[in-house]
Amino acid sequence: MKTDEMGALPLANYTINDVAKQAGVSKATVSRYLNGHFERMSETTKARLKTVIADMHYVPNHNASALKSKRTHQIGVVVGDLANGYAPYLVKGIAAITQPLGVQILVAEGKTVAQERDVLLNLLSQNVDGIILQPRSPHAFDYQFLQDANVPVMLVDRLIAPLVFACVTSNDRQATNILAQAVLEKGYQQVLVIANPLAEASVRQERFDAWQNVGQKMNVPVTLLEVDDDEVDDLQTWLTRVHDQKAVIFAANGNLLLATLKWLQHHHITIPETVGLCGYDDWHFGGLAAPALTVVNQDLHQIGETVAKQLMTLIAGDDITICRTEIPADIHMRQSV
Amino acid sequence: MKTDEMGALPLANYTINDVAKQAGVSKATVSRYLNGHFERMSETTKARLKTVIADMHYVPNHNASALKSKRTHQIGVVVGDLANGYAPYLVKGIAAITQPLGVQILVAEGKTVAQERDVLLNLLSQNVDGIILQPRSPHAFDYQFLQDANVPVMLVDRLIAPLVFACVTSNDRQATNILAQAVLEKGYQQVLVIANPLAEASVRQERFDAWQNVGQKMNVPVTLLEVDDDEVDDLQTWLTRVHDQKAVIFAANGNLLLATLKWLQHHHITIPETVGLCGYDDWHFGGLAAPALTVVNQDLHQIGETVAKQLMTLIAGDDITICRTEIPADIHMRQSV
DNA sequence: GTGAAAGCGCTAACAC
DNA sequence: GTGTTAGCGCTTTCAC
């Protein structure tokens, strides 16, 4: 290995052996130093190593240490759609916990169950220490291979049945209940819930159930419109049917809320005069729309932090109970209903 | 290693040795198979390995192969703020290129130059094959260590001087020029440009320069308000000063645009009657605001794809010219001016 | 066309 | 308190 006399030297190619030689100790000692095993290391060697490592700009090779220690200090985060307003806040919440710990985040997108499986397998082969997954499928058997792989897994946003991994979501049922109650008290006679296919995710079902329950209690009919691709043209039919009643639309997620808002604006349907609009997740700009939107806002940052903390616990080898942790969502009553 | 008779077996702990033994070949042959070196492999062993690997659910250990081959198939992506509307679309664009290639993305956030340095060093120690960086600092010397590390680096969104790494941005100067021209043709007599500190990023300067040039040509004074933290209270002063003139505000990025819009709404200042508003990056909801916003919209997905492609070229060992690639932005003229 | 063997850079017993 | 040593699972010459 080259010696350097000329100042700032390449952050490069030095190995633990070079450091050991330079410091006049064995590489075991260097390794101990690097891993913070100072229990019975003399202050002198400690100090010496500190300066030598700094001088050499030595950077340990993670791959080698991971190979040996079986710890990569990397976790995988798999979301359904990276550009969905959900993902960034979630990832930021996760990063707030992991980054100070020196744990890196591998993000990947699983747009279909098959693609999700691919990226998960890929993540496993990278030996990630753990995985945070917004699952595409509600069925545990689709994730059998994850259980078999014996890697810590946390779910976020969606549940699977049976619940074989711990999960963090918001309090969907409760929050939707409160919103529904508040909205229906304004005297609406018809409700349309626009959602992606309920069967694919149990929280969707919960949000719909909440409306049904409140609707029943207050004697207001609740209609369901399941759409697959944020294409909301079908709401024309419903609008026609209820045109002489005071009606309100609930869009069950942020994308649908936006799609619906755009559709209504495009068709020059006034909100809330002709039809009321409320929904889930305005990603900080519901207040800017015309009119400002009444919404349930999930605390994504908190969800991310919580799921990351629980994953870190699992990775540390401590058990946690396999259950759903619910993070309270905020409800913003504004002018769109 | 256990043999399995009972169907789906743990995706686990099999090594290349196990596969070799099971297939009755040497691990060298298995390795060749895994890496697609079929040049002179008999069809029979090829077929045999295929089935054995599938049967065993063997998954190669990336850390081991990375240690030996010096290729991790991971790239680092460092952005200033993960929750900024910029990041998700960019990352998605990058993922569109890398995911099919089996290249994983390590995302990290660099909120300050110091933190950015930390995460970059961390990334280097993970032996990422390359780095995409939205640089916090405009000075190349802050990234000397990256050059020394001899790792492929691509910049995105912002330049550094001298330009020692290739970079992908939008056509800031040109797009802003077109917008400015179109806006001023509406007869505005005063312009306020709200931006984060210009000195920190040359594209900010470009956007301001564009306004200055157009303003000069059309004889309209252009004022600059530099704010540090999306706190736009100071625009009160300017508004008072120009209250009897037809005035327009240009917010130089999406966050500032939102902050400004919120501030104006909060102070019940009508747009565009009292003051016009336009800006950069509405992240798909500028059309929903009241009134719909006139903006320059960067093609973030395209930027992400482009920067990822160029990085892949660099990683493949091919040279690219160190220059700035500009992706045309869209200009949306709407009702806010 | 395939195998043997030498490491990649690190960790963790186990010595002393 | 520190050194010796045996691998972790893979890739890649170099033989044959």
TrEMBL record, chains A, B:
GO terms for molecular function: DNA-binding transcription factor activity; transcription cis-regulatory region binding. The keyword Transit peptide does not apply. It holds the Pfam family LacI. Coiled coil: none annotated. Residues 12-36 form the HTH cro/C1-type domain. Keywords: DNA-binding, Transcription, Transcription regulation. InterPro entries: Cro/C1-type_HTH, HTH_LacI, LacI/GalR-like_sensor, Lambda_DNA-bd_dom_sf, Peripla_BP_I. Residues 14-69 form the HTH lacI-type domain. PANTHER family: LACI-RELATED TRANSCRIPTIONAL REPRESSOR (PTHR30146), TRANSCRIPTION REGULATOR, MEMBER OF GALR FAMILY (PTHR30146:SF154). This is HTH-type transcriptional regulator KdgR. It comes from Lacticaseibacillus manihotivorans DSM 13343 = JCM 12514.
